[in-house]
Design a protein that fits this description.
Number of domains: 1
Structural class: mainly alpha
Number of helices: 18
Low-confidence stretches: 378-390
Order of helices and strands: HHHHHHHHHHHHHHHHHH
Strand content: under 5%
């Protein structure tokens, strides 16, 4: 079958790193309850939030990396490398799962904070650890705030054949993804969770955002560019973002809520995050189109020092994301045990983001140090040449 997708140009797109880093920071801040710094995150100003951004960029980058590998080295090699990455993410998830459970359980018992056990859904672990650990390993049990990585693992785990088909029929692949999304919402498809309920992020619905990211990477952005740059898109996009802003603020301020008819308010509140409500998906698509329109890949500002910590966090996304989950509970614990004042809220938020940035810089340095330098290779070759024969 003929290749129809358009591969993105080689080289790193710093916009992806920047926004993925910002998404990691946003997820960290959003996971800290009663935190005034949460007001800087996007969830307060529209229907979508940092999780949508994280999944979209993940789909984009997975397609960016593995599509070229499949074309240059074959489907089997590309699929095996993709599954290797899935395994790495799964191992990171298991490691974080154990540490996170231990962190919450230990602090809850040591300081007599039994509310943490219920608030973060780990009572079952304390009462039946063997069963809960098993359910966690098969991704059915997830403590509060640990829902994104299992979603990412599942979406990547089934993505190899999707990517094969997308390279050949990108628009049809996206259309099939839309059909699955609509069917999931219509028939209530989801995966079961332990001990009861279903996945907080319904993979049958959220796969559309992941596939849309891949489609956007493999020529979709070029196909959509005439519309993205049109005056119609600009006017309609601004109008929709303002509409989403008002409806989101209405859920937070009673004065605004009183001005909105009940039928209209009830359509958008509460925000259906589990099944990726259409209005939520549209909000993110508009946001993505605006970024493409207003922030070109070659914008010199991406090299500014002020953006480097976020870009670095985006480049080391897995480690930073895991650290953010751990740090969010530590920050919450500090607010409960030490002080819940605004000063402490700002302090734990800044310290958490600083710790995530330091980890990103360390991982970047460590990975670079692990790679042999050109001089090192030359030196080894020279030694091998001069070594006496045996």
């Amino acid at each position: 079958m003929k290749i129809s997708a358009t591969l993105p140009s080689r080289g790193r797109d710093l916009r992806l790193d920047l926004f993925r880093g910002v998404a990691n920071w946003g997820i960290f801040l959003d996971h800290i309850p009663n935190n005034v710094v949460n007001w800087v995150t996007t969830r307060n100003y529209g229907f979508s939030d940092a999780a949508d951004l994280f999944i979209f960029i993940s789909g984009y980058t997975v397609a960016f990396v593995y599509a070229r590998m499949m074309l240059e080295r074959g489907f089997v090699i590309g699929a095996s490398r993709l599954l290797k990455r899935v395994w790495q993410i799964y191992v990171a998830h298991v490691f974080l799962f154990v540490i996170y459970l231990s962190e919450i359980g230990y602090l809850a018992q040591k300081y007599g904070k039994s509310g943490f056990v219920d608030d973060f859904n780990i009572r079952g672990f304390l009462e039946n650890p063997a069963q809960v650990l098993f359910e966690g390993l098969i991704l059915r049990f997830k403590p509060v705030n640990m829902d994104v990585l299992p979603l990412y693992i599942v979406l990547m785990g089934v993505f190899a054949p999707v990517l094969w088909f997308m390279l050949r029929r990108p628009n049809i692949t996206l259309a099939c993804s839309v059909v699955v999304y609509l069917a999931a919402r219509q028939f209530g498809w989801n995966l079961s969770a332990y001990p009861v309920g279903q996945w907080y992020f319904n993979p049958f619905a959220w796969q559309l955002l992941f596939v849309f990211g891949a489609w956007f990477a493999l020529g979709g952005s070029t196909l959509a560019m005439p519309f993205i740059r049109s005056r119609t898109a600009l006017v309609l996009g601004i109008a929709y973002l303002l509409f989403a802003l008002v409806l989101t603020m209405a859920a937070r301020f009673e004065e605004i809520r009183a001005l909105i008819p009940d039928a209209l308010y009830g359509t958008f509140n509460p925000n259906d995050k589990t099944n990726l409500a259409p209005y939520r998906l549209l909000h993110f698509v508009v946001f993505a189109f605006f970024v493409v329109r207003l922030l070109p890949k070659e914008w010199p500002g991406l090299e500014w020092r002020i953006f480097r910590p976020a870009i670095k966090c985006g480049q080391q996304s897995l480690e930073v994301f895991c650290a953010g989950i751990f740090l969010s509970f530590a920050a919450h614990f500090a607010l409960v045990e030490i002080s819940s004042g605004v000063g402490m809220q700002v302090t734990v938020s800044i310290l958490g983001i600083a710790a995530m940035a330091l980890l990103a810089y360390y991982r970047s340095w460590s990975k670079a140090a692990d790679k042999p330098s050109a001089d090192g290779k030359a030196g080894k070759a020279a030694v091998a040449t001069q070594a006496p024969a045996h």
